[in-house]
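Final report, Chapter 2: Outcomes

The project's central promise was a pipeline that accepts a single protein chain and returns its three-dimensional structure in a standardized token representation, suitable for archiving and comparison. That pipeline is now operational. To close this chapter, we reproduce one record exactly as it appears in the project archive, with the input sequence first and the structure output second.
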Amino acid sequence: MLVAAAVCPCPPLLVPEVAAGAAPELESLRTACAEAVRELLDSGAELIVVVGTGPQAEVWTEGGAGSFRRYGVDLAVRLPSGGVEGPQLAPSLTLGAWLLTEARAGLPTHACAVPTDAPPARMLGLGKGLAELADRVGLLVLGDGSACRSVKAPGYLDERAEDFDAACARALGAADTEALAALDPVLAAELLADGRAPWQVLAGAAQGAGLGGRLRYAEAPYGVGYYVASWR
């Protein structure tokens, strides 16, 4: 049963060594993520599952490792339950492993990557399955909102992006599983919102769990929607 979740974005710039001189710009986001992860770890969960996007559907149950070398930083991380030499994590999950490492997590941890174009029904079903992996399951869910909030955004400016992001923020802050389940995968893809699929995994896992939500952060630095939320 799902007992808690932390929702965080997954830009590599969250890692100070990667952000370098721009690190102070995301300090409030970094703090919000740390607080959400700490609340997740304090929830009494017996198993943590990290969920994020990847090029293909893939799971890690015996550890996994990743690094930030592609960004010019010699920093390697691993899931708390596995060695550094474990299977390579998808980039979003690598960021999740970094967040857990920063929080000094020691709980058994699995990870699950989902494609950005995965059908909503499949994501909801996956979430239900993840919630049944242990009596007390916690999810660390990684994904961004639209990348079209300004002319300097990766996807340039799209007038639909602000409303889409506002709806996502409301749903994440209210732990509204129905609203998350109803997110349009076509619109999300057009707005480069890669959090849609992981959020729908969360929606499936939380159905019937009676969790409440708290929105800790909702901004669009660099024209990309970033949200941090805690569900308990």
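Archive annotation: The longest strand covers residues 2-8.
This record, like all others produced under the grant, will remain available to the consortium after the project formally closes.
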